[in-house]
Amino acid sequence: MPSAPKAASAWLLGWPVALYIRLHRDRLRPLGRPLSAREKARMAGYFAEGDLERVRLVEQDPLPIAGRPFQGALRACGFDFPDPRLVTAITFDDMIAARQSLSDGVLFHELVHVVQFRLLGLREFSRQYVEGFLESGSYEGIPLEICAYALEARFELSARPFAVEDEVRLLVNN
User: Fold this and answer.
1) DSSP E strands, the chain
2) Angle at 11 between CA 74 and CA 6, to 5 degrees
3) What is the pLDDT of residues 31-59, one digit of tens each?
4) Measured between alpha carbons, how far is residue 76 from residues 8, 73, 93 in Å?
5) Mean pLDDT over the full length of the chain
6) How many CB atoms are closer than 10 A to CB 133?
7) How far apart are CA 23 and CA 64, in angstroms?
8) In the 8-state DSSP scheme, what is residue 47?
9) Cα(7)–Cα(89) distance, rounded to whole angstroms?
10) Where exactly are the structural domains of the chain?
11) Contact (Cβ atoms closer than 8 angstroms) between residue 95 and residue 134
12) What phi and psi values does residue 62 have, to the nearest 5 degrees?
């Protein structure tokens, strides 16, 4: 259970993070493309058809997104967070922004986040993401990321599809 100050901070910081996500989702939407037939076929069996149909992908380097808008506040609290413009890919609800063509594994990881957003909603996803970061002190310790990386590893190692939504429901606090 998170400490009261960290839980309160997560709630307070969750709002601007949700706004940051919504802003970029809406700004990127006109640039996005649907998943290709090959991408959909590769991810079928893991993800609901509705998720594969609604997601949009922007591939552009540099990414047309703002840098670390909360960096000053994070550094003041003793934290550092990767610059979103420099990551391989980042998900804004149902918009995936990538600096280059995605490997199947990275696409899978980002699609796990699409499912998390759908199940949790934008505000709760943002709150949990911030809370996970504040609790762990690192990007790698965020439970939503741990979930996505664990399922990505399972995807990479398994020949048999599994229902990502069922796994996300088990691994993420609803």
Assistant:
1) 33-34, 56-59, 89-92, 95-98
2) 60
3) 999 999 999 999 999 999 999 999 999 99
4) 17, 5, 28
5) 87
6) 25
7) 12
8) B
9) 27
10) 4-171
11) no
12) -80, 160
